[in-house]
Design goal:
Layout (H helix, E strand, L loop, with lengths): L8 H4 L12 E5 L32 H13 L4 E5 L9 H9 L6 E6 L4 H11 L3 E5 L5 H7 L6 H13 L6 E6 L8 H8 L5 E6 L17 H11 L2 E3 L10 E5 L5 E5 L12 E4 L4 E3 L8 E2 L1 H6 L5 H12 L4 H4 L12 H4 L2
Parallel strand pairs: 1-2, 1-10, 2-3, 3-4, 4-5, 5-6, 6-9
Antiparallel strand pairs: 7-8, 8-9, 10-11, 11-12
Helix pairs in contact: 2-3, 3-4, 4-6
Bound molecules: S-adenosylmethionine and iron/sulfur cluster (SF4) (2 copies).
Length: 347
């Protein structure tokens, strides 16, 4: 079914939510499975029994993802991030990227991955039209890395993945590092030094209370202000004024010209005011916040709708009602609740 709208909303009226945040970015999880069991995301003991993951036939097909992304683009989305689970586990991902890269109006397609399968796929993804890659790497200490990934990650595999991405032409990677107090914080400066002086941008991410299974506690969060100060003492840094208010990371540059580093501080410096991101799970559930408890199933509109405009109208009406700002409200009484898991939404 062709879901293209006859009328492009965006050119006339940008689609805004209740806080005047314009719909601009879409994150699509293409699979909920993963070859890691990161303790902060998908702890092995939280996956009970067989049948925990979505059966593959419940995933949106490539064609359905394309139709859905077209609908979001017609409503104003210009940037897409492909995520998971581990997105590189989705069979035929390069072909899907190629389909998505042909959508007029979609200016930027990025991918977040744990990097292990990049040696096999980076070249095909580049050829397919992928613009940018983020690799997650929490530490250079092989033992700590193994523990944080639930016994699955091998450092040399991820470093090989980074090299494969570089060789495929992705010269400027983002490197995501989740910092947990008492787990990998003692290894952060080594990682900072490793990426300083490269074109890649390390981003230190405060451990977040996403989902319900990662046993989050505020005591395990290292406020990013600590790193700004500690790094700045060793290598002076200054904030980089960003042109993009929707950017999640606060960027700093090294004053000696050795590149940039970013800080994602969802816990201590929430950025809900600039949050212009929509998220869809691999089975087509649309969420308007990373910490949401409820989403809307778009699958029936993709599979069975008679009217091609119905999907766009549904998305538009949900976005118009959006009033999420969880990170700004997390400490309010009565604000704890069931939340969707990170590996379903993809960050
Ligand atoms: N599997 C891919 C990966 O790890 O890059 C993509 C999906 S993963 C859910 C997306 C990002 O979310 C990763 O960079 C990961 O480190 C981050 N993440 C997962 N759980 C988190 C948490 N509790 N707090 C902060 N970041 C988290
Ligand atoms: Fe998998 Fe990424 Fe979650 Fe780690 S953070 S378990 S690699 S989805
Ligand atoms: Fe966006 Fe929700 Fe995160 Fe706030 S808490 S920045 S609204 S995803």
């Amino acid at each position: 079914m062709d879901m293209r709208l006859p009328l492009k909303f965006t050119e006339a009226v940008p689609l805004q939510d209740r806080f005047q945040r314009t719909l601009q970015e879409l994150r699509v999880s293409v699979i909920d499975r993963c070859n890691f069991r990161c303790t902060y995301c998908m702890p092995a003991d939280s996956l009970q029994g067989r049948g925990f993951f979505l059966p593959l036939e419940n995933l949106l097909t490539d064609h359905e993802i394309e139709d859905m992304v077209r609908a979001f683009v017609d409503l104003g989305v210009r940037k897409l991030r492909i995520t998971g689970g581990e997105p590189l586990l989705r069979p035929g991902l390069p072909a899907l990227v190629e389909q998505l890269a042909s959508i007029p109006g979609l200016n930027d397609i990025a991918l977040t991955t744990n990097g292990v399968m990049l040696p096999r796929l980076a070249g095909d993804l580049a050829d397919a039209g992928l613009n940018r890659i983020t690799v997650s790497l929490d530490t250079l200490d092989p033992k700590v890395l193994e523990e944080m990934s639930g016994g699955r990650a091998r450092l040399e595999q991820i470093l090989d993945g980074i090299q494969a991405a570089e060789e495929a032409g992705f010269q400027q990677l983002k490197i995501n590092t989740v910092v947990q107090k008492g787990v990998n914080d003692h290894t952060v400066m080594e990682l900072v030094e490793y990426f300083r002086g490269t074109p890649h941008r390390l981003r230190l991410i405060e451990f977040m209370d996403v989902g319900n299974s990662n046993r989050w506690s505020r005591d395990d969060v290292v406020p990013n202000a600590h790193w700004v100060e500690t790094i700045g003492r060793k290598w002076p840094i200054a904030p980089v004024g960003s042109r993009n208010p929707a950017e999640t990371a606060r960027r700093y540059k090294y004053l000696d010209g050795e590149g940039e580093i970013g800080f994602i501080s969802s816990i201590t410096q929430p950025f809900c005011g600039g949050c212009t991101r929509a998220r869809v799970t691999a089975d087509g559930i649309f969420y308007t916040c990373l910490f949401a408890d409820k989403g809307t199933n778009l699958m029936p509109l993709l599979r069975h709708a008679d009217d091609p405009g119905e999907l766009s109208r549904k998305i538009a009406s949900i976005w118009a009602k959006r009033n999420d700002r969880y990170s700004e409200q997390r400490d309010l009484p009565g604000h704890s609740r069931e939340k969707v898991e990170m590996y379903r939404l993809g960050g």
